[in-house]
Amino acid sequence: MFREVMMEKVTVPVLKSMKGKDKITMLTSYDFPMAKIVDNAGIQTILVGDSLGPVMLGYPNTIPVTVDEMIYHTKAVTKAVKSAFVIIDMPFMSYQESIAEAKKNAGRMMKESGAEAVKLEGGLNMKDTIKAIVDIDIPVVGHIGLTPQSIHRMGGYKVQGKGIEAQRLIDDAKAVEEAGAFMIVLECIPRTLAQEITEMLSIPTIGIGAGPDCDGQVLVIHDLLGLLGDFRPKFVKTYLNLQAEIDGAVKTFIEEVKKGVFPDDARSFH
Question: What is the set of active-site residues?
Answer without folding.
Answer: 187
